[in-house]
Structure prediction request, 819 residues.
Amino acid sequence: MCCNKLSEAAAAKFAELDAFIDGLGLDLKDERRRGRLIQILHRAQDIFGYLPREVQQHVAEKMRIPESSVSGVVSFYNFFSTKPKGKYVINVCLGTACYVKGSEGVLRELERVLGVKADTDPTPDGLFSLMALRCVGCCGLAPVMVVNGKVYGKMTPAKAVAVVEEIKAKEAQA
Amino acid sequence: MKKITSKADLMAMYESTKGKLALRLATDKLNKLDSPKKDVLICGDTGCLVSNSQDIIANLKAEVKAAGLENDVNVIQTGCFGFCAQGPIVKIMPENVFYVKVTPEDAKEIVEKHLKNHQLVERLVYVEPTLKAQITDYQQMPFYKKQQRIALRNCGLIAEENIEEYIAAEGFQGLAKALTEMKPAEVVQLVLDSGICGRGGAGFPTGMKWKIAAGVQADEKYIVCNADEGDPGAFMDRSIMEGDPASVVEAMAIGAYAIGAKQGLVYIRAEYPLAVKRLQLAIDQARELGLLGKNILGTDFCFDIEIKLGAGAFVCGEETALIHSMEGQRGEPTTKPPFPANIGGGYWGCSTNVNNVETYASIPIILRKGAEWYSKIGNWKTERDENGHWVKTISGNAGTKVFALAGQVNNVGLVEVPMGTTLREIIYEIGGGIAGGREFKAVQTGGPSGGCITKENLDTPIDYGALMRIGSMMGSGGMIVLSDKDCMPAMAKFYLGFTKDESCGKCTPCRIGTRRMLEMLEQICDGKADENTLAELEDLANTVKDTALCGLGQTAPNPILATLRYFRDEYIAHVRDKKCPAGTCTKLYQLFITDACKGCTKCARNCPVGAITGTVKQQHVIDQSKCIKCNACIDACPFKAIVKK
Prediction:
């Protein structure tokens, strides 16, 4: 962050997170308050979109636990991200059922079209993040791709590119 | 809703609601096409929601209303029918008619023709691929004939978001029986005698687990549901939680009573948002009815359930890792003992019992119908004492197991079969054989921890021990069918990529071993390895198997060892001849256009990188430096003129 003063938008987000944590009624003397950490981090990621260091610090202070513990948990679980994501997060399923039906080809084609490697930074325009995930449990529709929570079944490289093009066209209009 | 405070209240509610299911449970289906009263069932699970089942439901409801049939026809969103490959499915009861691949636009015709004029909509009727005949009655479909749905008994039968329908399906009567007629030790004995084993994969007798937990003297105990379905390719737990969440609630209460716990926890993966929502709804509704909370059914028994979200870590399916994750820590496993049931080994150090979703889903019906009923399903041979209690298992297992059938098979979906069913029956009869007329090569079971089973072992009756003996394992029930176009070293590479990502890093054999094994497999698939690599790979695989800390690491080499055991020739082809017999390893082949090419230009138009050149009516050429081997040209070519060499 470039300055110490939080922008209004960020302050509102921290306030929302605080309200959630306060609502849990943590007993700061009880060792078991730690059990709420993952739940709080889920909420924080919902609010901020990702978990930058200042959010992790904030959670640690609020829960009165070491920042290292928070960081340890954030880095352990795939679901938590310390980097911002694109406006559209494309998750290509690399579960076994999708893999044997050719989802790797879908992922490679999207990497080529978007010009980014999977599980790295978003596209330079900030529009897309490309990720690989393991199984959303829709194996009957393999191969599967998920864009911002919406599942697309029976994908081919060409169909996946068409979905991306559609989003691009929609964004260009907006 | 009025609280249920006694068994009599529960039975009164059952009596007043069971009529709701009458049409759906009707066994006599003769001439039912004419019956004016109908229940129209549509799957509302994740898989079918993707295929617009919500719109189908909305359209059907609107059309039913427009046709003035709303007093006679109920449109009901249910759980999974299992036949995911043909979804979305619309099932009409009492005549048992099964429409497949329905679109929202079909709603009008279904209502007009079927519901109003009592005629079949023939174009939507399922056509059986092997018989090439239309089958309307799902019970006659080969997909369902050999199945026995126990854990999935309510999936696709009851409205999933309504606990009243669960009660109408005899729900909570198992709990009522336990609380009012049995001592906790009797419940444990019943589960032990039934022979049910942990359906999460390990196959440890559930009753034994409960007995150990019940034997621990402690005031604070926990009962946990492991809903962290991490095996990529298995989705039975998701289906149960989405289609019949209340059965998990009831079973956990039964388990809690048996072992003496007051608090239950469900650890569920965050990748299943709909399952989380439905389970929470079932918990809330049960609480509202007084079936969770204080003094359940007017007894001294108090119990409640809380949901704990996972955050994407495969290792958290291991019970000690799961417990650490619930405590808000990194989900790293610890050595056993202490076992979770021991004091000091469980949640916050308290005695904790962990069972899997599918195991729980079978418990209420076992309580209701008794141990003997369940123990006779499957191929279980036991030695029993004079009271009929289980002493030891001679062979096989009791009950049923749900498998998620996927991969190169015609009928992708969820199937539940009695133990002892053969793989051939599952793949060829239920699964309808190999898709696209391909040749069967192997079936992968047990997910990333499992192995593969070849043609020679297709007639093995399935049980935990039998699968271990042929080099694989039951696992959570993922069953991936592979055909001749699947490369086995590449499959092993795929699984090692998974376990390498999911290794928690705590112990060295797993953290470094999985990475090194993956590198070797990459070299093999890229044609950069020699026969020494194979020997080193096998050696390392055995070392990791023997030395890793937890189940994840110990089983991570299984995909390698199993494929080496059965498909060594494929590995040899990769390292010696630098060829991939299945034609999937992209570094080991090039695409060529043969003289069968008629110059139709389809390939050139479909190539995403412009690697194909040629003029109309002349043989085209692929520029190897540009080709990315996406194989789009092969799919596009109508003359089969493009070959891999």
Observations:
- Chain A touches chain B through 49 residues (CB under 8 Å).
- Chain A has two domains: 8-76, 88-173.
